[in-house]
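_Per-residue structure_
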Amino acid sequence: MRVLALLLTLNAASVQSLVFSRPAMSLKSPQSDSSRRSAIQKGTAAVALLLSFQSPVEASGGATAGGAYLIRAKQRYSDRVKKGADSYLALEGAVSGGKLVKDSFFDGGKESAAEDFLAAAYLLANAFRSNSTTAPDSLPTVKKFKAFMKEYEATLKLAKKKGGEDAALESYKKSVDLLKVFLASVDL
């Protein structure tokens, strides 16, 4: 904005006097090369001077430093996480009945609602950063998500064992508590 304002305040005569300090010379004149060189040097200096007037507010913070990208990421993943969390929280009956792994939440393997929920939750957790140099594993939201994931995987492992319904239910309840802590940390 400052550059545009500066350009608007300069009129053609002031720009010409800034760039061309001598009158134009004939092409055959021995001084014409130095005159052209001088004009190019002054023009380059003027452009560099005009471009150097950038305020810190105009500078970008990068893709992951906190700006609009992270706001869009939070909006994009929030709905998927809410939907997946609601589905996961509704699984208590399937866990206690020994039918957790057969639930439609897990149908589709890598394309299942469960996998979509977990991927979106991790990406949402990662969107809560204050700068781009912070490693994802050191973010509090990612730590809370990983704590939930550990118990989630334990629940699935116990649910696959014969006669492990009681242990799976207890693990499921722990994972639900950890999921609620995670959801609170990402403002859901």
Helices lie at 2-9, 12-19, 32-51, 68-89, 92-96, 113-126, 140-160, 165-185. The first helix runs from residue 2 to 9. Residues 7 and 105 are 61 Å apart (CA to CA).
